[in-house]
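Minutes, project check-in
Item: structure for the 103-residue chain
Input as provided by the requester:
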Amino acid sequence: MFGMKMKAPAVLAGILAFGLSTAAFAADDFIAVCKAGTPTPDNDKVCGCMSDKITGSDRPTVIATMRKVNDAMAKGGALDPSTFQGDQAKAIATVMEVQMKCM
């Protein structure tokens, strides 16, 4: 029993470290994807602001949708936002709304 009490804090610390590193990775990933799609002189400021405002469970969908748009733009095209459905449509709307607030 004593051994289990000794291991519990180590397990908890490991879980917390994993959670914090995952959150940090998501923030870094957001910034990188945002900067790729926002080629402006002040993209550090805009993307940092957007990263602070887009949090929670919507964030992974927003990142994936931004990546999809960036990929289309890199190929010389653009995605028509009206073609997005459900979560992706919500993500596009969120990005557009937050970007306007951060510019």
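Outcome recorded: The two ends are 57 Å apart (CA to CA).
No further action items on this chain.
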